[in-house]
């Protein structure tokens, strides 16, 4: 090892090995079945002509069932690329991702899509609601394409609508809703299939403070009450503070970890 590498190991990796915590940017040892997201040596390089641009550089990380993990970093740090890799929305240049023990790399495109639909709920900054459909229809479409065979649970949808304060707004189209209401509809759409994992990419990025607080409260509540594993990407340290763990990214690597304010040891949601 070079002297600089040894110093980096002593500063960042050795303390975590001693305390049994997660290891970042190193290989993660195979351990308990309580790990629902496992990434090993993830690297993503984008090619533009002859130019190679590394967005994620050898990141390894694990997330336990029921955790709320926030990944924080400035623009260009690689956090959104890592989000897409962990959600199976793009393929890694190197390394692998396992979701509940299933390696994305071993799946066909159709199988990977099916796994995402069944196990993961996505919340995006731009809402991604279909503009010609009502809020209710947007939720119904999401449920339909998830592949669930059982009918949509209307009692559960009613419960979500009350929690998200959109009960009287479901017959409106996105253009008739405020930004905060659109994001709350998007959260209902993500939660309606009861996914084991919720991935949220800058969920408060387009919202004012009041609506941001409401969205964050709902993400925390769904994590606690439903036991869903939640992974949130954000540039806002204040938003990240609600998580169980906060991972900081810079230059395509996770450089440090802090504890958040959320309580751990949550009961995992059933498949």
DSSP summary, beta strand count: 10
Query: What percentage of residues falls in helices of 4 or more residues?
Result: 25-40%
Instruction: Give the total of domains.
Output: 1
Whole-number radius of gyration? 19 Å
- Per the CATH scheme, the topology name is Rossmann fold
N-to-C CA distance: 44 Å
Question: Which structural class do the helices and strands define?
Answer: alpha/beta
Order of strands, widest sheet = 6-7-8-3-9-10
**Quaternary structure state of the chains depicted:** single chain
Q: What's the CATH class label?
A: Alpha Beta
Gross geometry: globular
Q: With helices defined by DSSP (H or I, 4 residues minimum), what is the helix count?
A: 8
* Low-confidence blocks of residues: 1-32, 263-271
- Roughly what fraction of the amino acids lie in strands? 25-35%
Please characterize this protein's 3D structure:
The chain has one domain (31-259): P-loop containing nucleotide triphosphate hydrolases (Rossmann fold, 3-Layer(aba) Sandwich), CATH 3.40.50.300. Strands 6-7-8-3-9-10 form a six-stranded mixed β-sheet, with helices on both faces. The chain is globular. The protein is of the alpha/beta class and 271 residues long. 34% of the residues lie in helices and 26% in strands. The protein has eight helices and ten strands. Residues 1-32 and 263-271 have low confidence and may be disordered. The protein has helices at 3-19, 79-86, 109-119, 135-145, 154-163, 179-191, 209-226, 237-240, and strands at residues 35-48, 51-64, 68-72, 94-99, 102-103, 120-124, 197-201, 229-234, 245-250, 253-259. The relative contact order is 0.18.
């Amino acid at each position: 090892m070079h002297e600089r590498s040894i110093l980096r190991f002593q500063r960042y990796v050795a303390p975590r090995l001693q305390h049994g915590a997660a290891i970042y940017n190193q290989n993660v040892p195979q351990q308990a079945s309580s790990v629902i997201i496992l990434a090993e040596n993830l690297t993503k390089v984008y090619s533009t002509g002859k130019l190679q641009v590394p967005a994620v550089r050898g990141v390894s990380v694990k997330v336990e069932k029921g955790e709320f993990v926030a990944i924080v970093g400035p623009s260009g740090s690689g956090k959104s690329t890592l989000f897409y890799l962990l959600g199976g929305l793009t393929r890694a240049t190197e390394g692998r991702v396992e979701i509940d023990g299933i390696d994305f790399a071993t799946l066909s495109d159709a199988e990977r899509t099916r796994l995402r639909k069944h196990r993961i709920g996505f919340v995006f900054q731009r809402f991604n609601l279909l503009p010609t459909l009502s809020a209710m229809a947007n939720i119904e479409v999401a449920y339909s394409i998830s592949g669930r065979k059982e009918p949509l649970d209307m009692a559960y949808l009613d419960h979500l609508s009350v929690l998200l304060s959109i009960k009287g707004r479901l017959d409106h189209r996105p253009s008739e809703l405020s930004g905060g209401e659109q994001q709350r509809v998007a959260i209902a759409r993500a939660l309606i299939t009861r996914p084991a994992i919720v991935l949220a990419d800058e969920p408060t990025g387009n919202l004012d403070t009041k609506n941001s607080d409401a969205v964050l409260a709902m993400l925390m509540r769904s994590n606690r009450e439903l036991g869903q594993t939640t992974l949130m990407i954000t540039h806002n340290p204040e938003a990240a503070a609600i998580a169980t763990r906060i991972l900081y990214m810079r230059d395509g690597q996770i450089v440090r970890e802090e504890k958040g304010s959320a309580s751990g040891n949550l009961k995992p949601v059933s498949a």
